[in-house]
Specification:
The chain has about 350 residues and is mainly alpha-helical. It folds into 2 domains: about 1-190, Ferritin, core subunit, four-helix bundle (Ferritin, Up-down Bundle), CATH 1.20.1260.10; about 195-360, Up-down Bundle (Ferritin). Helices cover about 75% and strands about 0% of the residues. It is built from 11 helices and no strands. It has helices spanning about 5-35, 40-75, 85-100, 110-140, 150-175, 180-185, 215-240, 245-270, 280-295, 300-330, 335-360. Helix 7 packs antiparallel against helix 8 and helix 8 runs parallel beside helix 10 (about 300-330). The two termini are about 25 Å apart. The structure holds fe (ii) ion (FE2) (2 copies). One fe (ii) ion (FE2) binds near residues 58, 61, 120 and 123. One fe (ii) ion (FE2) binds near residues 20, 62, 65, 123 and 161.
Length: about 350
């Protein structure tokens, strides 16, 4: 295998290894956060238990995935090592930021459910990128393997984990759209409760507190606004660095991010509020990650990596608008706000489908 290909493969493998290893630790933390036992009520208990169960299953699955990657390292005779994944660091920072501002434990399950789905999207995207690369190497007979090992096994191993990630995402989506969360949001006390905040002192401060479902909605709305604003600039930058075909796709994404940002402004206007300055560290990480990967990639891979970055971003935004729509539907807002969010969530699904097609072909 040529050095550039081997380096690209090693880098993908190291990223995946880092993702699974970080997740093993982080999912333990999240399981602890979710099982905080300060709430009464059957619905809340049921919801928390189901979420806890998913997170535990995810953690066990993650251990299996980490072991599978260790087997791939062995098969391909590469020394196991963990690469940097800024998006994951960002996800952790966002979670800590939320923990510092949430004043009502009943709001943890809906937040963690959405956060878990975003984490899974990051994982799914990491596997998707690695699989695309490995498919090419296997097809060209360029994947080096230890004596007696089969290159197809590497592909199959990665695909098995990818399928697990997709199944977990579906599972989380079922839970989000299911009865436990609905009952929790309808029946629990998500109005001001006066409960003390669980201070993690993670060093992140935020000017707004999250005590009611309305607060959580506005918190996530502000997050979404920050993201769209960053994306307008980032997509512009990405589009300038790729070939014409891809530049057109990325310019479309930029225009769409601008439309979504403008729509969010309308939503804030309808609520009589303004977006708080709420940094979204996950998207900052995805942008940093995407930027450095595209810049350092060999020429024949950089355009594809730019599209993969866009796909990761749009998948995260799909989760974000699904969550906003879910939260919004439990608040008595004017119908037009919900209609806007629903329209955006539907459009996101189409965008993601189209990008998935482009990335695969
Ligand atoms: Fe995994
Ligand atoms: Fe996973």
């Amino acid at each position: 295998m040529a050095t550039a290909q081997r380096d690209a493969f090693t880098a993908e493998l190291e990223r995946l290894y880092s993702v699974e290893r970080t997740l093993e630790t982080q999912l333990e933390v999240v399981a602890g956060d979710v099982s905080i036992d300060t709430l009464d009520g059957v619905q809340i208990g049921d919801c928390r238990e189901r979420l806890y169960e998913r997170i535990e299953t995810h953690r066990e699955e993650t251990t299996t995935h980490r072991e599978r990657l260790e087997a791939v390292f062995e098969t391909t005779e590469i020394e196991p090592s963990a690469g940097d994944v800024p998006a994951l660091e960002g996800w952790i920072a966002d979670k800590e930021q939320f923990n510092n501002v949430v004043l009502n434990d009943a709001l943890r399950p809906p937040y963690y459910l959405a956060a878990a789905a975003k984490l899974e999207e990051l994982e799914r995207s990491a596997y998707g990128g690695a699989i695309t690369l490995v498919e090419g190497l296997v097809a060209d007979g360029d994947l080096p393997t230890a004596e007696g090992a089969d290159a197809d096994d590497v592909l199959e191993t990665l695909e098995a984990s990818y399928e697990d990630e997709v199944a977990m995402l579906e599972d989380l989506a079922d839970l989000a759209g299911g009865d436990p969360i609905a009952s929790l949001l309808e029946e629990s006390d998500v109005g001001p409760s006066g409960r003390p905040a669980l201070d993690r002192s993670g060093g992140h401060t935020q000017s707004i507190n999250v005590e009611t479902v309305d607060d959580l909605f506005v918190y996530q709305l502000s997050n979404a606004f920050y993201v769209e604003d960053e994306l307008v600039e980032f997509y512009d930058e990405l589009a300038a660095n790729v070939g014409d075909d891809h530049a057109e796709i990325l310019a479309d994404r930029r225009d769409h991010a601008r439309t979504r940002r403008d729509r969010l402004e309308t939503v804030f206007d309808a609520l009589g509020s303004r977006p708080a300055t709420s940094r979204n560290h996950t998207i900052d990480g995805v942008i940093e990650d995407g930027r450095s990967r595209v810049e350092s990639a060999p020429d024949d891979r950089s355009d594809r990596l730019a599209l993969e970055t866009a796909l990761t971003i749009e998948r995260l935004q799909q989760r974000c608008y699904d969550e906003l729509h879910l939260l919004g539907s439990h608040i008595d807002y004017a119908g037009s706000v919900l209609e806007d969010l629903e329209a955006t969530a539907d459009e996101q699904r189409e965008i993601v489908d189209r990008l998935e097609d482009r990335v695969r072909n």
